[in-house]
Amino acid sequence: MISLKKLTIRDIFFRSRMAYSEQPALAFVGSEPLTYADMAIIVRNVSGMLNTLGIKKGDKVALIGENSPNWGIAYFSITTIGAVVVPILPDFSGSEMESIIHHSESKVVFVSARLYGQLNLNNLKNVDAFILINSLEAIDEQTAKVDSAMPYTTPAITVNTDYCDCEFPKPAEDDLAAIIYTSGTTGRPKGVMLSHKNLVSNILSTLMIQNVCETDRLLSILPLSHTYECTIGFLLPMATGASVYYLDKPPTAAVLIPAMQKIKPTMILSVPLVIEKIYKNKIKPELTASPAKRMMYGFPLTRKLMHRLAANKLKDVFGGELHFFGVGGAKLSYEVERFMYEGKFPYSIGYGMTETSPLLSGCTPKIVKFRHAGFNLPGQEMKLLNPNPTTGEGEILVRGSNVMVGYYKEPELTAEMFIDGWLRTGDLGTIDENGYVEIKGRNKNMILSASGENIYPEEIEDVINKHEFVLESMVYEMKGKLVAKVHLNKEVVENYYNDLRHSAKDWQHNAEEKSKKIMDDIMHHVNSKVARFSKLNSVVEQPEPFEKTPTQKIKRFIYNK
Asked: Who's near 552: CB < 8 A, 6+ residues apart?
């Protein structure tokens, strides 16, 4: 356990600089890592630049960019001098980014070369300066011609004597550290205000259940602007002397697999969609490739053995040294978790939300409980609001030093989120006698059947997604009936219908008939496996992939109409 004088990001940063000075800190895969000492020098220089630009304690500074070592340097440069970082998701549109910059009153904007062109500078006249993340240099708006393909460079590792450390303000525990604008499943972004104490206490609580040390290597594949990756995948390893590596290209299989072989990560944070795709596209087809394999897979004992062998192969693909594969952000499919559980893959499911910095529950891979999201973290409290006496289900309430200050400029919305000092998560779940948490679904998503039963769309979607033709799905209510939208795996469909291999024209000609047959087959498959009150009334095709949040949850408000 690390020891800090104050629960601030500054204290974490300066402790790590002294304790792990020569340890590798941040790097792109294939590049020479910055040591903690080198990173500290660059952070000091960038903080000095912010100081000369007039940034004071409490001022807001936006941070818009893809994952990179320079993103982390910018984050530390802002927060260690008491300014407030406003990480903005790179998936937001230009107008959404501009709206957040305005709403947060950001005075300076760090932006990557790729995203700079998406901003209309005429709409951002109140911004004092733009700093290019790629080089960590200020942009001269009069002469700048920023190339979107500009490479990332490491600034000079030489102390700039123009800046004096004594000029830098020091944040207090209760000072704001970050305002994180959520991109949720239900509507417009909200600015979640997190203090230094919120973030640091969550790091310390996490370290009480999962050890991370200077020999650990984390491969970062989720967006840093999301609090899950930022707190657990960046700040936590930086607090413990671990090394974090980034990809300089999108995490496709062709990029990811060689990177894992090179880095041999000990830790990876993921969302369900990543491992579900790997399982559905690579692992399951291999497990059921022949009639003999399918027969063996049908028996629990042989299935478990097959899962164990497949999981060992997967660990080798991941570099062979993985001891923690953290899954969070959404519910993991039953079938995929069964594979990892029976295969003894070193996974752990966590539960949390931006408003709680984010982690609320989790555990180590050795004590995972199937279909549960670990147990409540030490130093935090959790209980259920009005649990059902029969099922034990209720809305999860939490409190602790990790709980947000509130929503920025939204006092009424903030008040609605609390009841007697407890934060309402909006998630329905159970807590067993050993403290393990099982998430049932979002309160807002729950559908009440005509006969009074609670229907959780997520549970029906889990059944739908087991169908070989389905990549993803969404269940909703329309005029009192249950409807499912499904996005199909066209490759699997085409392989199933042999005639599709001959002519795309044939597919077009027979598309409507085949689509109806597939939809009917999916509905029959689901309705044979769910409770009477959860049966689907219709299944319709979603031609394009569903639009998703950064943690790969479907934005239901777009489709639930």
From this structure: 271, 272, 273, 274, 329, 330
Question: What Rg, from alpha-carbon coordinates, does the chain have?
Answer: 24
Using CA atoms, how far apart are residues 341 and 36, in angstroms rounded to an integer? 36
How far apart CA 45 and CA 77 sit, in angstroms, is 8
In the chain, list all ranges with CATH 3.30.300.30: 447-559
Q: What is the DSSP letter of 550?
A: T
CATH 3.40.50.12780 location in the chain: 9-212+222-245, 271-405+418-442
In angstroms, rounded to a whole number, what is the distance separating the alpha carbons of residues 358 and 328? 10
CATH topology of domain 9-212+222-245: Rossmann fold (3.40.50)
> What is the DSSP annotation of 31-79?
SPPEEHHHHHHHHHHHHHHHHHTT--TT-EEEEE--S-HHHHHHHHHHH
The one-letter code for the residue type at 98 is E
Angle of CA points 367, 369, 370, to nearest 5°: 140
Gap between the Cα atoms of 397 and 524, Å rounded: 38
Contact 230, 279 (CB under 8 A): no
**Which pLDDT tens digit goes with each residue over 302-334?**
999 999 999 999 999 999 999 999 999 888 999
| Beta strand residue intervals within 490-544, DSSP E | 538-541
Record the tokens describing residue 301, joined without a space: 């004992």
The answer, as to whether pTM is greater than 0.90, is no
Query: How far is residue 49's CA from residue 136's CA, in Å, rounded to a whole number?
Result: 10
Query: What's the CA gap between 274 and 67, in Å, rounded?
Result: 17
Q: How far apart, in whole angstroms, are the C-alpha atoms of residue 104 and residue 271?
A: 28
Fold of 271-405+418-442: Rossmann fold (3.40.50)
- Number of Cβ atoms within 10 Å of the Cβ of 476: 16
Could you tell me which of 417, 464, 489, 442 has the C-alpha nearest to residue 331?
442
Using the 8-state DSSP alphabet, how is residue 346 labeled?
A: -
Strands 106-111 and 60-64: parallel
The pLDDT tens digits for 161-204 are 777 666 788 999 999 999 999 865 555 679 999 999 999 999 99
CA 246/CA 251 separation, integer angstroms: 10
CATH of range 447-559; options 3.10.580.10, 2.40.50.140, 3.30.300.30, 3.30.70.100: 3.30.300.30
pLDDT of residue 512: 66
